[in-house]
Amino acid sequence: MKFTVRLLLLLTTVFLLFSIVPCAAGGTWQTYVNNNTVNDIAVSGDYVWVAGYCGGIIKWNRHTGDYDKFTTADGLMSNTHNVVESDNMGRVWFAYGPRLEYYGATAFTRVSIPDVNVFAMAVDDENSFWLGTFRNGVIHYNGSIYETYTTDVGLADNEVRAVEIDRNGALWFGTINGVSKFDNEVWTTYTMDDGLAGWYIYDIAEDLSGTLWFTTNGGISSYNGEVWKNYPSADKLNTVYAREFAIGPDGKIWVGFAEDWDSYIACFDGVSWTKYKRESPVVGQFTSIDCDDDGNVWVGINRGTLDSPCLFKFDGTQWTSYMTETEPLGEGFGMLVSDNNGINWFSTNRGLVRYDGIEWELFTNADIGTSGDVYRFTVDMDNIIWGVSKDGPVSFNGTEWKIYSDVGAIIGRISTMIVDAHNVKWFGTEHGLVYYDGNTWTQYTSDNSDIYGSMGIMGVDYDNVLWLKNQGSTGTSDIFSFDGNDFKQHTSDITPHADELSDFVVDLDNVKWFSLDGVGVVSYEGSEWKTYTGEDGLAMSYVKGIEVDKNNVKWFCDGYGHSVLSNGVTSFDGTT
After folding, report:
1. Are 242 and 257 a contacting pair, CB within 8 Å?
2. Per residue in 266-285, pLDDT tens?
3. N or C: which end of the chain has fewer CB within 10 A?
């Protein structure tokens, strides 16, 4: 690989000399995501709609097993959604954080809502929305006006995890402190003192007789308008782990259970409970459940992989598995590198993934020989993959993996690495900086240099000057450059953006590309700064990794929040 496409991070002293302005991007964006994980499902007519983490939206034909995949490239605001709900106009609604959108006949439409985190949603007969939020109470939206209901007006708690509208039009809100009923005039709250099995409400459903059902942290409860009834654990059915309800067309109550990693469903016929479990292992927990008009039960799990389905159908006797094809192996994309042959390498929660444009290949930790993930890696001039793990540096020559576990010069955990223009390998550790010239390992710490603290993200510029970002004892980041002789601090030159910088590359046109965590991607060409965000085609604005391949296509790994969990992989074949 050319030296210009191997740079991981460059922090320049001119960062604040130019303003950062948004721009409209040319070229074509394409997003690659792992669809085999489910946060919520909804059956609407002939289709099962699946919303998950990082995977966009999947629309399954429940009769044929065919599916359509929708990502940000198709107009979605995000590839992650927590909630799916259908209305009586044939629209399917999706919510995640402060994002609300629906799919009509052919396209997605965005709806502006207050800056809240949506946990639950219900649509009434007038197609107005009731949104349960995290710590912001209930938001009611009638298409033009928003109303907010909190504990100030009678809601049990401002963290609302479930919303249900009963046959009489009354609204039920499951909170972390009981259940509140609102009949558009009066608020009534029910707690454990009234008969609820627990105080934390996971889900609410109304059966064909009008009885309300609740899953709680203390088990399952029902309420017929007069009497509360609790259902204790029995016959290997631990109701404490009940999560979501579905009501079959025959009136049977179906419940999804998540007991550690032992997931199963159960049916209540009005007299007794029957437990059903997949015979083959299920990777992950059942997170959502719904019934179709034919009486089939659909359940989704929260952590599917290439060899583990994300969606299941149970017809009362047999299980059918559904999974998408040709997706990245695993999730949690954190870093990517393009080697000399133009092959892209990705780090995931299952190991390193190799993608040659046609096939995805996985190298697990067992294949590599490490006891933990390879969380940083790059490629040297000899096309050898170099990475770091808690066991030490690792390398891959195309045939076999090697672990350098006995390197005495490396003290403490390695956080990052880079290869410079002379094919020297540099490693940032929790106590300083180490380099390997192919024969000798040398270390810089506060004892023999001006650097201090833990070395974080590293990069090298065209003059072979090494750039370092460390975490000092004060908890703030400092920026250093190292020309082979002297260390120089540049923190004051880039403040206040030092803490947001997460990755850097130089493309074949000598354009510099920066990722600013929470801002997006920034390019620098000549004297002009430009910003790219989700509106321009990025999966999200939390970008953790950037790489440029031999065709000058920029690849971005997108993350969300502080957990460094990926929203997918996005490529961009245009320039600034």
Report:
1. yes
2. 999 999 999 998 766 555 67
3. C
What is the per-residue pLDDT across 430-485, written as a single tens digit (0 to 9) for each?
888 999 999 989 999 888 888 888 887 667 777 787 878 786 555 566 767 788 88
* pLDDT of res. 284: 65
191 burial class (0-12, 13-18, 19+ CB within 10 angstroms)? middle
Contact present, 286 and 37 (Cβ < 8 Å): no
Question: Please, are residues 290 and 42 in contact by the beta-carbon 8 Å criterion?
Answer: yes
Please calculate the CA angle 56-61-66 and round it to the nearest 5 degrees.
Answer: 80
Token pair recorded at residue 474: 């004060």
Q: What are phi and psi of 480, to 5 degrees?
A: -125, 155
- Strand, helix or coil at 241? helix
For residues 481 and 510, give the distance between their C-alpha atoms in angstroms, rounded to a whole number. Answer: 20
Q: Which amino acid is at 257?
A: F
The sheet that has 385-389: what strands, in order across it? 376-379, 385-389, 392-396, 401-403
Opening angle at CA 341, ends 337 and 344, nearest 5: 30
Average pLDDT taken over every residue of the chain: 81
Among 349, 335, 434, which Cα is nearest to 378's? Answer: 335
Determine the Cα–Cα distance for residues 167 and 363; give it in Å rounded to an integer.
53
Q: Is there a contact between 191 and 156 (Cβ–Cβ < 8 Å)? A: yes
Dist. CA 332–CA 565, nearest whole Å: 5
Task: Return d(Cα 78, Cα 56) in angstroms, integer.
Answer: 7
List the beta bridge partners of residue 546.
556
CB 301 within 8 A of CB 310: yes
Average pLDDT over residues 81-103: 92
Whole-structure pTM over 0.70, yes or no? no
Helix (H/G/I), strand (E/B), else coil: 36:
coil
User: Which two tokens mark 483?
Assistant: 């020309």
- pLDDT for 9 equals 29
Record the tokens describing residue 411, joined without a space.
């003290």
Do the strands 425-429 and 520-525 form a parallel or antiparallel pair, or are they unpaired? Answer: unpaired
Q: How many residues does the chain have?
A: 576
What is the rounded distance in angstroms from the CA atom of residue 59 to the CA atom of residue 71? 12
Residue 240 phi/psi, 5-degree rounding, is: -65, -25
Centroid of chain to Cα 222: 34
Residue whose structure tokens are 């209305």? 87
Q: What backbone torsions phi and psi does residue 72 show, to the nearest 5 degrees?
A: -60, -25
